[in-house]
Amino acid sequence: MSIDDQTLRALAFAASRARPHDANHWREPVVMEILRKLADRKLADVALALFRAADDRSADMPHVLLNGRSPHWRERDTTWTPPAKPFDRQRTCGTCGYEHAECQRRWASDHRFEPIPISSSNAIALPPDTASELHDLAKPPATTTDHDGTHPGAVSHSEGDHA
Ligand SMILES: [Zn+2]
User: 94-98 contacts: CB < 8 A, separation 24 or more?
Assistant: First the structure.
């Protein structure tokens, strides 16, 4: 089943408006002409490639889509980095330094989750193998977290991997 003309027109209409402000304008009839040649493909694939190309300032013409090897047909890297959360001693395991859910997932049978005791918050003794894993977690010094740790209004993150 190929993509019908009405759908292609809608895509062409929207794509021509998705061009960056200072980029070459894409005229709708030209976009249509290209889209008709792609009408036997999956709508979602065409739509995604079309808008990736439309958003690409360097894609002067929609003709780039006729090249099946153009990067616009490939998924963008969608790796999502969660926003940094303020360090919260109460939710951080004193043994491994991970938050509760992550501590359970990694070390379930290894140790119990015990929040970092206040008295030792400046000197967390880590097993050597854990210390290297934690290296990239780069947390702010514990002394700065007493006030901005968590306040009740803070976004509560679901701990994720329970299921
Ligand atoms: Zn732990």
Answer: 94/120, 94/124, 95/130, 96/126, 96/130, 96/134, 97/124, 97/126, 97/130, 97/134, 97/137, 97/139
Give distance in angstroms: CA of 151 to centre of ligand 1.
Answer: 23
**Cα 7 to ligand 1 centre (Å):** 53
Ligand 1 centroid to Cα of residue 90, in Å, is 12
CA distance 12 to 20: 15
Ligand 1 centre from 130 Cα, in Å? Answer: 10
How far, in Å, is the centroid of ligand 1 from the Cα of 23? 52
Q: What is the pLDDT of residues 99-121, one digit of tens each?
A: 888 888 888 778 888 888 776 54
Diameter over CA atoms, the chain: 70
**pLDDT in the model for residue 147:** 52
Using a CB cutoff of 5 Å, list residues around ligand 1, an ion: 93, 95-96, 103
Contact between residue 42 and residue 11 where contact means Cβ atoms under 8 Å apart: no
Residue 142 C-alpha to ligand 1 middle, in angstroms? Answer: 17
With cut-offs at 50, 70 and 90, classify the pLDDT of residue 145.
Answer: very low
